Amino acid sequence: MDLDNKWCEKMVSFEEFPISSSNYIAGYRIVENKGFVYGLSVRARGLGGDIGAGLKGLLGGEIKQYVQMMEDSRDESIERCVVHAKELGANAIISMRLDSDSISQNMQEVLAYGTAVIIEKEG
Predict the structure, then answer these.
(1) CA angle 3-6-10, nearest 5°?
(2) In a designed cystine with 34, which of 51, 83, 88, 100 is the match (CB 3.0 to 4.6 A)?
(3) 3-state secondary structure the chain
């Protein structure tokens, strides 16, 4: 599987700021719960993207403009969630989730949320 280097460059490393979709992080113990954190991104599709998507919809296949828009929204919402956690003094996020919905015909929101915690390495 070919990894998207752009994704890897944007996101914070696990060593720098651990994020987990589970309720724990293996090898670490939670010493303090800092609370709920979130990051929100709202993006609008441009006219050019809508025209291209309309043509792709007729012909079939992946709509790359929308995929890129959603990837950018995901990255931005996760980054904002990490900033929120750091503002609370956390050094990790557990139970990270992502949610997405349409706001209007051409706007999409992506919400990243989880629990900010302070963790320490076990042992």
Answers:
(1) 115
(2) 88
(3) CCCCHHHHHHCCCCCCCCECCCCCCCCEEEEEEEEEEEEEEEEECCHHHHHHHHHHHHHCCCCHHHHHHHHHHHHHHHHHHHHHHHHCCCCEEEEEEEEEEEEECCEEEEEEEEEEEEEEECC
Q: Which residue has the tokens 């025209």?
A: 51
Output the pTM of the full model.
0.78
8 A C-beta contact, residue 69 and residue 82: no
Q: Each residue of 10-43: pLDDT tens digit?
A: 566 788 899 999 999 999 999 999 999 999 999 8
Check: CB of residue 97 under 8 Å from CB of residue 113: yes
Angle at 3 between CA 108 and CA 53, to 5 degrees: 35
